[in-house]
Design a protein that fits this description.
Elements (H helix, E strand, L loop, with lengths): L1 E4 L2 E3 L8 E4 L6 E9 L3 E8 L4 E7 L4 E5 L4 E2 L9 H7 L2 H11 L6 H8 L2 H8 L6
Antiparallel strand pairs: 1-2, 1-8, 3-4, 4-5, 5-6, 6-7
Helix pairs in contact: 2-3
The structure holds zinc ion.
Length: 133
């Protein structure tokens, strides 16, 4: 699971489970899900026993900064893994090729990604899959 924070994508450094405090909603133990690092701070996603999610920001020295809601966490949808017939229903072959190339870090035509982006909402409505490239 990667984290989108301030428009940047972060991969987890560690997914070790530790009790890191108390849930601000219900007060039960909060357990870490994943640790992320940005230039200036640490981010830790966490979940309590009752399923409340939180994202906790720490300074570089692990001083607590604040708790954020965990809506920033998204599961990455790999276009290459999606059924081709679903993609074909919405996107052109060139758009599909370049969405996959973009996710894999290969060269792609930017214009095709822009065009594909205008169709993400329709794709999500039809298939319940949210693409974010
Ligand atoms: Zn809770």
């Amino acid at each position: 699971m990667f984290l989108l924070f301030n428009g940047e994508r972060h991969n987890p450094l560690s997914q070790s489970r530790n009790v890191i405090g108390f849930c601000s909603t219900c007060g039960s133990d909060l357990e870490s899900l994943a640790y992320y690092s940005t230039d200036s701070e640490w981010l830790v996603s966490a979940q309590c026993a009752k399923g409340h999610l939180a994202l906790i920001r720490y300074g570089r020295d692990w001083s607590w900064l604040d708790d954020l809601p965990l809506e920033f966490l998204k599961e990455e949808v790999k276009v290459a893994d999606l059924p081709r017939e679903k993609l074909d229903a919405i996107f052109t072959p060139a758009e599909i090729r370049d969405m996959i190339a973009c996710q894999e870090g290969s060269p792609y035509v930017r214009q095709n990604i822009y065009r594909a982006r205008t169709k993400y909402e329709r794709f999500e409505k039809l298939f319940g899959i949210k693409i974010d490239i």
